[in-house]
Request: fold
Amino acid sequence: MNRRYRYITVLLLLLCSCSNKEERERIKWQVTLSSTDKRPYGAYLAASTIKYAFPTAVLEPLSPGFRYDHMDSKMKHNDDGRSLIIFCGLDFKLSDEEWRNLKQFVNNGNEVMIFCSSLDEKIEKDLSCYKEPGDEVPATFYYAQPDLHNTDVLRIESTPGRRYGYEGRSIKGFFTVDIDSANIANREDSSDENDDDMRIYVPDTLGYANEMPDMLRYRIGDGHLTLHAAPLVLSNYFLLQPGNVDYLNALWQTLPKNISKIYTHSYYKRSANKSGLSVLWKFPATRWALLLAIFLLLMYVLFEGKRKQRIIPIIAPLKNDSVSFVETVGRLYYNKGNHANLADKMVQQFLEWVRTHYLLNTNLLNENFINQLTIKSGQTEATVRETLEMIHEIRLRSVKIDDPYLYKLYNTIQLFYKNNHT
Reply:
């Protein structure tokens, strides 16, 4: 009987452990540190505390792929006070130009705060500061595992006697500073002619992890650059533990009060190289290959597109249907036997046509009119005279207008219509 109870107890424990594991795996424990992510290792809560710590400041989130190669003057110089950039992610890498621009941003009296687990080597060398491991996040680390070594490991100078931590992923990263290095002690950075007025001073230690410095603040010109070795202190999981929100509030309080513009940049893992064509453009061989490909593509579009152009159809000019209309009306008069009226209509239409096409005055059908109509119409003088004589006969009714006469009048007028080329 005791053995049976023992088996039942083991089975129940196995079922409980399986259900707990399934529950933990249902929760997405991946690290994103995104300001919009409400999962354990997102940074939604941390982003929400910024507007309460700096209630008068204007917040502007930057896209993850934002580059600092060409920071505009509006971003570098804030006439309303200081500007602050908060970087939140794991691997923090910058190009040389970005690092120079960021230092210039700080030198102008602004603030930069970088939370990272891995720091760019050029920044480490420039600041004589080296990031030690302690908070790396393995790619296979899918769900949270309790780590009692992360409890009570953090402290901050502004809240003496208080310690902070949680049972989550490691937050024990720290920095080592070579204070004897010539790169840091009140030196002038001569790496660029535009940086001659930048002075980087020995940093102040504002926070510790296991009594090792994990939060350093450098004065550069009129501003400050702050490094924090444990980006997971911005995670929702860390801030939901009792008292840990006080740690973040203490961090914000170490910054100047006259900050009027805050840029937030959630980058996760940031590369020093730009994405897209800019990476390929930096290599001469690839750059020339791209230029050649673009040139050939343009040539193809210009010449092949021209050769393949469809034939433009010929659009026939609009017909002048007024003559056809008159002919139709004439047939109606002819069918009714009113030949005299039909002859009048034919004469009126002809004279109107002459006025329109040859721009001649038809009020006086005299010798001058005959000469002008002969020249402009291209008809013989005899044809023109015969036509005008028939017009006079019709007007004076000095001739019998019957079918043969109408036929003759019609054919005479048609000579003008057919030979007209206007």
The longest strand covers residues 82-92. Confidence is low (pLDDT under 50) at residues 5-14, 18-25, 139-144, 187-196. The chain is about 45% helix and 15% strand.
